[in-house]
Specification:
Shape: globular
Distance between the termini: 26 Å
Number of strands: 12
Oligomer: single chain
Largest sheet: 4 strands, antiparallel
Helix content: under 10%
Strand content: over 45%
């Protein structure tokens, strides 16, 4: 699957069978691999500036990446809130991570390091 960054400078690609995300810079073609681990990737969500990317694995592991450096900015496990976490969304201000699972919406406030998971 492909997901373009909001600024159009990068494109993220992933497969439901792999534990990594590939991020391509559109102008240069440079590719960076981000190791997700803990299960294949279910979904991705870009930060508004195109510099951060949230990944969600089938196990419920969430990582927020700095795509410029490949550094993990935040790591958490959303599996405790639901048996099936299917989708992730980062709010426009990049403060909230929003999860969908078992027909419920859960949030995590990145600035306070807690939420209603």
């Amino acid at each position: 699957m492909l997901r373009p960054a909001p600024d159009g400078r990068r494109v993220a690609a992933w497969s439901a069978r792999e534990e990594r995300v590939r991020v391509w810079e559109v102008e240069t073609g440079r590719c960076q691999e981000l190791e997700v681990l803990q299960g294949a990737v279910n979904d991705l969500s870009w930060g508004q500036d195109g510099m951060s990317l949230a990944s969600l694995s089938g196990s419920g592991a969430v990582r927020v990446w700095d795509v410029e450096t490949g550094e993990v900015l935040r790591s958490l496990n959303a599996a405790g809130s639901s048996r099936r976490i299917g989708y992730i969304l980062m709010s426009r201000d990049e403060r909230l991570l929003i999860f969908e699972g078992n027909n419920k919406i859960k949030t995590y406030n990145r600035m306070r390091s807690h939420g209603s998971l």
